[in-house]
Design goal:
It is a single chain. By secondary structure, this protein is an all-alpha fold. It is 71% helix and 0% strand. The chain is built from 17 helices and no strands. It is globular and about 55 Å long. The model has no long low-confidence stretch (mean pLDDT 92).
Length: 262
């Protein structure tokens, strides 16, 4: 692969090591081997923003080490404080971990730099919904784009659900379904949205279909869906994690410490 060829030319190049680590997980679900590659890269250059972003988002977060991921993002932002994507990724990880108060702080920092950032505006609405600040939500939704970006749709859908706007929820759910065939990531976002609005059974079906299609974004499900004990203990959800070697037993076998939210 391209990452292997790049490493033949520069064996300790942090970005190539991060890419190789991602490819290792993507093709073999070998989180331990990926960890070693990421750490090699970080030791070589602990300020490589690309490598730090990959390590935090694609390794630390899926394996349940969200606090470590947050620390890595903060370090990366010290090197590149106006990086919109890094700041948004940090806000996204905090939302995945059920910390909307912190997510709102981080996304407001993003929007201070890039006021019209679509993902930022949509995430801000979602964070307000999760915080229960419903009086501020209509104005936030008015600012967020209403387009065919699957990530924006999911965040808007959950915000409208908090307002009890059933018509908007149905419309946005249908829009996500329409995108599933052409945009694989929409399958995962559909699963999360369905669980978020209480359609757990249908959400698990969508999650299984995403795994069958090889959609990599499913790896975030361990943190996001696993916060809910009713979902975490579902045999079908556990089977989904096992297929990615992200269940508790597989993680322990790979040498990781397993922790769950209270």
């Amino acid at each position: 692969d391209a990452f292997t060829r790049a490493l033949e030319l520069a064996p300790e190049q942090s970005g190539a090591l991060a890419g190789k680590a991602w490819h290792t997980v993507r093709t073999r679900w070998d989180w331990r081997a990926a960890e070693e590659l990421y750490l090699r890269g970080v030791r070589h250059d602990d300020r490589d923003v690309f490598a730090l972003d990959f390590y935090a988002a694609l390794q630390l977060t899926p394996t349940g080490r969200v606090d470590e991921a947050v620390s890595v993002y903060r370090r990366a932002l010290e090197s590149d404080p106006f990086n919109t994507l890094l700041g948004w990724d940090l806000a996204w990880i905090l939302m995945m971990d059920g910390r909307p108060d912190e997510g709102l702080i981080e996304v407001d920092r993003v929007l201070a730099v890039t006021p019209d950032y679509p993902w930022g505006l949509a995430l801000r609405a979602w964070a307000l919904a999760e915080e229960g600040r419903l009086d501020e939500l209509p104005a936030a939704l008015e600012q967020a784009p209403d387009d065919d970006d699957e990530l924006v749709i999911m965040m808007r859908l959950l915000a409208h659900h908090a307002l009890g706007d059933r018509e908007a929820v149905v419309r946005l759910t249908d829009r996500l379904r329409d995108l599933v065939d052409t945009r694989p990531s929409a399958q995962v976002l559909l699963a999360w949205a369905l669980v978020g609005i209480g359609e757990v059974e249908e959400g698990l079906v969508a999650l299984e279909e995403a795994i069958d299609r090889g959609v990599f974004q499913v790896v975030f499900s361990r943190v996001y869906l696993g916060r809910d004990p009713a979902v975490r203990d579902e045999p079908r959800f556990q089977a989904a994690l096992e297929s990615m070697r992200l269940d508790d037993e597989s993680l322990r076998e790979q040498g990781f410490t397993v922790a769950h939210p209270p």
